[in-house]
């Protein structure tokens, strides 16, 4: 992935997770939820065919959790694989 493509994808995902304005800040200043978003961006930016996510909604605000669930559904609907763990049975049942 060239640097321009990488930067474009990072900005797109950062915008979706509403963390774009914080990208230039030190990671030490990030909350747990912001760090979770950053890790998700790093994991998803290469659009891997298989997603393996361990409790991916932990620490996310409701809007970001909704965004991630939508992304997971779209990924699975495109014929790719999403494995995830959750303690929230409602999320597991709906996904």
UniProtKB/TrEMBL annotation:
InterPro entries: ABC_transporter-like_ATP-bd (IPR003439), ABC_Transporter_VariousFunc (IPR051782), P-loop_NTPase (IPR027417). Residues 8-57 form the ABC transporter domain. Keywords: ATP-binding, Nucleotide-binding, Transport. GO terms for molecular function: ATP binding; ATP hydrolysis activity. The keyword ATP-binding applies. SUPFAM superfamilies: P-loop containing nucleoside triphosphate hydrolases (SSF52540). PANTHER family: ABC TRANSPORTER ATP-BINDING PROTEIN ALBC-RELATED. This is ABC transporter, ATP-binding protein. The lineage of its organism: Bacteria, Bacillati, Bacillota, Clostridia, Eubacteriales.
